[in-house]
Specification:
With 987 residues, the protein is an alpha+beta fold. The strands form 13 sheets. Strands 25-28-29-30-39-38 form a 6-stranded mixed β-sheet. The two termini are 41 Å apart.
Length: 987
C-alpha cells in the first residue's frame, strides 16, 4: 500500500490516560488472547490494539479505492475511523477474535485474508481450449475454462499417473479462475527450453512449482522461494491440439500457393503429393512434374473469416496447409515467409492463439538487396516468421520431407525447461486457475506448474489427502473448519505404502507441516512413498517467537504426535482391510485439530457433518459403549447431523441426552431462507449453494467459504439510534474484510462472489431484561433494514456485490468476556460459577496464576501442551441462570432472533435438565420449521471433564476467592493467542 491510513494523533492522545471498562475477566482475556507483542518485547495496550485494527480496516478500504480509481474522501474516512475506534473502546462492538489478533498487521497486508496466496502474474499466459494462449488478466473470476494438464503427478516422488495405469500423457481438464490479488513483492523467473526459447514468468513467493536437479533425481513440489538457478521444470505439450479439417488444409495450402485472381492451384515436384492428398478427385495432371486444381473458392485467397476463426480445428488445419505450401525447416524453427506484412502478422497471432510459439514478423530480405530477385520484381520487403518446432507434432506436417526433418531435429527428446535466472521484483497483480484433482496446468513455454485445489471428502477417491490438507492449512491460520463424511460412501480401501529410504525434512513453515501430512496420506493412497522417518530439526524450538503471524512456537511435538498417530491409524485400516469410514475421516481431522490447537497461537474449532442414519458417526463420542474413544482427540470437533425436514428425531435424542451431540442443521432452511418467516417461504432459494456451516453454526457456507463476523453489544446502548450508529461501524469493518482475498483460489471464488458477513449480537438476554423483548425485536427489525440500506450504499461505492447474507448470532466465546456481557443468546451459567480457560502450558501466565492462588491443572485431553486456569465468578447483573429457564424458552428466544435478526443462523446451545431429556425429539420436531441450526447440552452428567462452566454456591465462591492476589504477570512475552473466538464453541 503506497499511502497508509492513520488515525489523528490528537484523537489518540485523548485515550492515553483512559482505562478500558473491561468485564471481570476482560483484562486477563485480552492480555492472554489478543494483545500482540511489540518490537520492544512488551504487549500492546488496548488502545494500541484498537488503533491497529481501525487503521488496518481503513487502509484496506483506501487501497481498494485507489486500486480501482474509486472516490476516497480522506476527511470523511478520518471521521468514520474515529467513530469506529470510540465505539470499540466503549465496548459497543468488537471484531471477532481473528480480527482483534490480525487486522492491521503486515501479515494480512502482504498475505491476504487467510495467508500468502500462490498464484501468478496476471500477464502470464496459460493454454486453454476456449481461447488458445491467453493472459490470466483477461479471464473473469470464477470463469470455467479447459486447460492443459498432465495425468502424471509430478508433485510426488512416485510420479503416479492420475486416473490411469498407462504412461503419463497430457490431458485437457476443467479449471476455475481465481480473483486478482495484490502483494508487496514477487519473484520473476526466466526459463529456457532445449530449443533455446526463453520464457519469463512472475509468481508470488508461495506459488507451487515442480523441480528437480537432474534427470536422476525425483520431482519435487516446492514453493517459488525454494527454486534455484539450474533447476529443471517439466514441460507438457498436447499430443494433438485439434482434430484435422480437410477444408482448413485446402484453404491454407491455396492461401500459400494459389493464384488468387482465378482460383487455380498449381503445384510442382514434391508438392504434388500434398495436392493429391488434399484434392484426390480434383487434381489435374499437366505433366510429370506439374499438377493443378481449378475453380477453387476465391475466398481461400484471404485469411479465414471471423466464423472460421472461432473454429480451432479449422485454424490448426489452415496453418498446417500454409506451412506445407510456403514453409521450410532450418535449425530448430519452421520458417514461413511472405511479402504481405499485415497478413503475416495475423498468421503469427493465429499460431500463438492455438498454443504454438511464434516470432513476430521481421524483415528477412530487404528491398534492393542482392537477394531481391526472390521478390519477383515487386517493390517490397520480404518478411518472415519463425515457428518453434518443439511446439509442433509430426502429424502437423503434410510433406514427407518436413516429417523427416522433424524426426531428425526432435529424436526422443525429453521435455524440460531450465531455470536460468531469478529476480526479486515489486509486487504485481496476480491470479491463478484451480484445477481440481490434477492441481497442475500449463503456462507460457508449456511449463507445467501447480496450484492448490481442494476437494470435500466426497472426492476422496480422486485425492485422498486434499480435504485433510485444506483443513490443516486453514486451521493453522486460525480459521474454524467444517468437513463432512461423504467419503465413507466411496468404498475406498487404503494401500500398504511403499517405503522409501529418504528422511523427509520438514521446513519451518505452515506449508511444511501441511506437506508432511500430505505425504503420509498420499503414501497410503498409492500416490507417494512413506519416508523412512521425519526430520523435525528445522522446526523452531518450543517457546521461540513466530515473528510474522505472532505468538510463539509449540515446538515439533504436536506435529510429531499428529503424524505418528495418523500413520498408526492408517496402518490399522490397511491390516484389517477396512474401507474408509466415518470414524477414520473424523479421527484424522481431529488429530489435525489437536495438533493445531496445541500450536499456542490458534484456537480453531472443527465441525463434522454426517447423515442421521450414520450410526457409526453418532456413537463416536459415546464413551460408555465405546470406551477406547476417550483416548482419542474427538473433543476437537463438534459433531452434527445435516437433517432433512420431516426426519424422525427419536433416533438421535438418546445420544443428545447423553452428551449433547450431535447438533442439528437444516440445510433446506439455510438454502431457502434469510430471516425465517416459515409461513411465507420464498419463491426461490436465497442461498442455494450452501452445503454446511462454520464450526459454531452461525454462518451458512458454501464449500471452501469462510465466515466473516463482527460482534455488537446492544445492552451497552441507550437507544435504537445509538445502536444504529454502532451497526454502521460494525458493518464497515465486516464489509472491508470481504475486500481482502485469501491464499486459496477456491475460497476466494466464493468469498468475493457472496461477500457474506455476519453482524452478530451478544448480551441479548441482558438487553431483554434492560429494554424488554418487544423493544429488542424492534431494534432487530429496524437495525436489519438499516444494514440492508447501508449495504446498497457502500457496495455501490466500492463497486462490489451486495452481501448474500448479513446477520448472525454467534456464540461469542472469549470476545464477550472483554466487555463482560453474556455470550450470544445464552443465559449466564449461574449467579456463582467457575469459568475455566485454556492456556498453553509453556505460557508465563501459568506460574503467575499459580502464585496468585488460582487453581491451575493440566488439561485432561492434552496434558503435555495445555493447562486449565479456573476463575471463580459472580455475575454482577443477574436475573436468570441456565437452571432457571426451560428448554422451550431457550428455543423460543432462538426462533425470535432467527425471525427478526439472523439471515444466516442463530448459534444456540440449549441446555436442558435431566427431566427435560424426554422432550428433545418433540422439540426438534416442532422447531425444525423455525430454526436453521441448534445444539443441546445437558446441565449435569454431560460427560465433559473440565467443562468451561461449572455452577458453585455462594459459599464455595467465597471460599475460592480467599487468598487470591492480583497476578503479577510479565507481559513482555506473549505465549497464548486465540483466533477462533472460543476454546470450543458453546455446543
Amino acid at each position: 500500500m503506497t499511502n497508509r491510513f492513520k488515525l489523528s494523533d490528537s484523537f489518540i492522545k485523548k485515550y492515553d490516560r483512559k482505562v478500558p471498562n473491561f468485564g471481570p475477566l476482560g483484562e486477563f482475556t485480552y492480555k492472554r488472547t489478543y494483545a500482540r507483542q511489540l518490537e520492544d518485547g512488551k504487549l500492546e495496550t488496548f488502545q494500541q490494539t484498537l488503533r491497529r485494527v481501525v487503521e488496518g480496516t481503513f487502509e484496506h478500504q483506501k487501497a481498494h479505492c485507489e486500486r480501482f480509481h474509486l472516490p476516497w474522501q480522506a476527511r470523511k474516512a478520518q471521521k468514520s475511523a474515529q467513530e469506529m475506534f470510540r465505539r470499540m473502546w466503549e465496548f459497543k462492538f468488537l471484531p471477532p477474535g481473528r480480527g482483534l489478533w490480525m487486522m492491521g498487521t503486515d501479515y494480512i497486508k502482504e498475505r491476504g485474508g487467510a495467508a500468502l496466496n500462490n498464484p501468478l502474474g496476471i500477464d502470464t499466459k496459460i493454454l486453454t481450449k476456449e481461447y488458445g494462449w491467453i493472459k490470466l488478466r483477461y479471464l473473469k473470476t470464477s470463469e470455467e475454462v479447459t486447460v492443459l494438464s498432465s495425468n502424471k503427478n509430478y508433485g510426488s516422488n512416485s510420479e503416479k499417473v492420475i486416473g490411469s495405469d498407462l504412461n503419463s500423457s497430457p490431458v485437457w481438464v476443467k479449471a476455475k479462475v481465481s480473483p486478482t490479488e495484490y502483494y508487496k513483492s514477487c519473484l520473476e523467473f526466466t526459463f529456457k527450453d532445449k530449443g533455446g526459447f526463453k520464457t519469463t514468468v512472475v509468481s508470488s513467493k508461495n506459488h507451487r512449482w515442480y523441480r528437480r536437479n537432474n534427470s536422476k533425481t525425483p520431482w519435487e513440489r516446492v514453493p517459488a522461494e525454494d527454486l534455484l538457478e539450474g533447476d529443471y521444470v517439466p514441460i507438457v505439450k498436447p499430443t494433438k491440439f485439434f482434430k484435422s479439417c480437410v477444408t482448413g488444409y485446402q484453404h491454407g495450402f491455396f492461401f500459400g500457393d494459389g493464384t488468387r485472381s482465378n482460383g487455380e492451384l498449381h503445384q510442382f515436384d514434391s508438392s504434388i503429393e500434398v495436392l493429391e492428398k488434399l484434392f484426390p478427385t480434383l487434381t489435374e495432371k499437366i505433366s510429370e512434374n506439374h499438377s493443378v486444381v481449378r475453380h477453387c473458392p476465391l475466398a481461400w485467397g484471404k485469411l479465414p473469416t471471423r466464423e472460421y476463426l472461432e473454429d480451432r480445428k479449422y485454424i490448426w488445419s489452415f496453418l498446417a496447409g500454409y506451412v506445407a505450401a510456403d514453409g521450410s525447416i532450418s535449425g530448430n524453427k519452421v520458417r514461413l515467409p511472405s511479402s504481405r506484412l499485415e497478413e503475416l502478422k495475423i498468421v503469427s497471432l493465429l499460431f500463438k492463439e492455438i498454443g504454438i510459439r511464434c516470432s513476430d514478423p521481421y524483415i528477412s530480405i530487404k528491398e534492393g538487396s542482392k537477394n531481391s530477385f526472390y521478390l519477383e520484381g515487386r517493390p517490397s520487403n520480404l518478411y518472415e516468421i519463425k515457428i518453434e518446432i518443439f511446439d509442433l507434432r509430426k502429424d502437423f506436417f503434410l510433406k514427407e520431407k518436413h516429417k523427416k526433418k522433424y524426426d531428425i531435429l526432435t529424436p526422443r527428446r525429453r521435455d524440460w525447461g531450465k531455470l536460468v535466472s531469478i529476480k526479486k521484483i515489486p509486487g504485481v497483480p496476480i491470479k491463478c486457475v484451480e484445477v481440481p484433482g490434477y492441481e497442475q496446468f500449463v503456462i507460457d513455454g508449456f511449463i507445467l506448474t501447480s496450484n492448490c485445489g481442494f476437494a470435500s471428502t466426497e472426492q476422496l477417491d480422486k485425492d485422498f489427502a486434499a480435504p485433510f490438507a485444506w483443513v490443516m492449512d486453514m486451521s493453522m491460520l486460525g480459521v474454524g473448519c467444517g468437513f463432512d463424511t461423504k467419503g465413507r460412501h466411496l468404498n475406498i480401501q487404503l494401500k500398504k505404502p511403499r517405503e522409501a529410504t529418504d528422511t523427509h525434512v520438514i521446513p519451518d513453515t505452515r506449508e511444511g507441516w501441511v506437506e508432511a501430512l500430505r505425504r503420509v496420506l498420499d503414501s497410503f493412497a498409492g500416490k507417494d512413498t512413506l519416508p523412512a522417518g521425519f526430520d523435525y530439526s528445522k522446526l523452531r524450538a518450543e517457546g521461540e517467537p513466530i515473528i510474522s503471524f505472532g505468538g510463539v512456537s509449540s515446538g515439533p511435538d504436536p506435529l510429531r504426535k499428529c503424524l505418528d498417530t495418523a500413520i498408526k491409524t492408517l496402518q490399522e485400516y490397511v491390516e484389517l482391510e477396512n474401507e474408509i469410514d466415518s470414524t477414520l475421516i473424523v479421527d484424522i481431522m481431529n488429530e489435525i485439530g489437536a495438533c493445531v490447537v496445541s500450536g499456542n497461537v490458534r484456537r480453531s474449532a472443527e465441525i463434522a457433518f454426517s447423515e442421521i442414519e450414520d450410526e457409526e458417526f453418532l456413537n463416536l463420542k459415546n464413551y460408555k459403549s465405546n470406551p477406547e474413544a476417550a483416548s482419542k482427540p474427538r473433543w476437537a470437533s463438534n459433531n452434527s447431523i445435516a437433517a432433512e425436514l420431516g426426519d424422525n428425531y427419536n433416533s438421535i435424542a438418546e445420544n443428545i441426552s447423553a452428551n449433547g451431540e450431535p447438533g442439528i442443521i437444516w440445510l433446506e432452511n439455510m438454502k431457502n431462507y434469510g430471516r425465517m418467516d416459515y409461513l411465507f417461504p420464498p419463491l426461490h432459494p436465497l442461498d442455494p449453494l450452501v452445503k454446511g456451516s462454520n464450526p459454531c453454526g452461525e454462518q451458512s457456507l458454501e464449500p471452501f467459504e469462510l465466515c466473516c463476523l463482527v460482534e455488537t453489544f446492544p445492552s451497552n446502548h441507550d437507544s435504537l439510534e445509538d445502536y444504529k450508529e454502532t451497526l454502521k461501524c460494525a458493518y464497515l469493518y465486516a464489509k472491508t474484510v470481504t475486500l481482502i482475498p485469501t491464499h486459496d483460489q477456491r475460497t476466494n471464488a466464493v468469498l468475493l462472489k457472496n461477500r457474506r458477513i455476519g453482524t452478530s449480537q451478544s448480551g441479548i438476554v441482558q438487553n431483554f431484561e434492560k429494554i424488554g423483548i418487544s423493544e429488542h425485536i424492534k431494534w432487530c427489525n429496524e437495525g436489519y433494514s438499516y444494514l440492508k440500506d447501508l449495504d446498497k450504499l457502500y457496495s455501490n461505492w466500492l463497486c462490489i456485490p451486495q452481501s448474500i447474507k448479513m446477520t448472525s448470532v454467534k456464540p461469542s466465546g472469549t470476545v464477550s468476556l472483554l466487555p463482560g456481557v453474556t455470550p450470544g443468546i445464552h443465559y449466564p451459567h449461574s449467579e456463582y460459577y467457575i469459568r475455566r480457560i485454556r492456556v498453553a502450558k509453556n505460557s508465563p501466565l501459568v506460574p503467575a496464576m499459580v502464585e496468585a492462588g488460582y487453581d491451575v491443572e493440566d488439561c485432561v485431553n492434552q496434558p503435555e501442551f495445555t493447562s486449565i486456569v479456573s476463575f471463580p465468578v459472580k455475575e454482577s447483573y443477574f436475573s436468570k441462570s441456565k437452571t432457571d429457564i426451560t428448554l422451550w424458552e431457550q428455543l423460543e428466544n432462538a426462533a425470535i432472533m432467527q425471525a427478526y435478526w439472523a439471515d444466516n443462523q442463530v448459534s444456540v446451545t440449549v441446555t436442558f435438565k435431566p427431566e427435560e431429556a424426554k422432550d428433545l425429539a418433540t422439540a426438534l420436531d416442532r422447531y425444525q420449521y423455525r430454526l436453521k441450526s441448534v445444539s443441546f447440552l445437558p446441565l449435569s452428567e454431560h460427560g465433559y471433564k473440565q467443562a468451561p462452566y461449572e455452577e458453585i454456591t455462594e459459599e464455595q465462591y467465597k471460599e475460592m476467592i480467599k487468598g487470591l492476589k492480583k497476578p503479577k504477570i510479565d507481559f513482555h512475552v506473549n505465549k497464548e493467542h486465540a483466533f477462533c473466538d472460543g476454546d470450543v464453541c458453546e455446543v
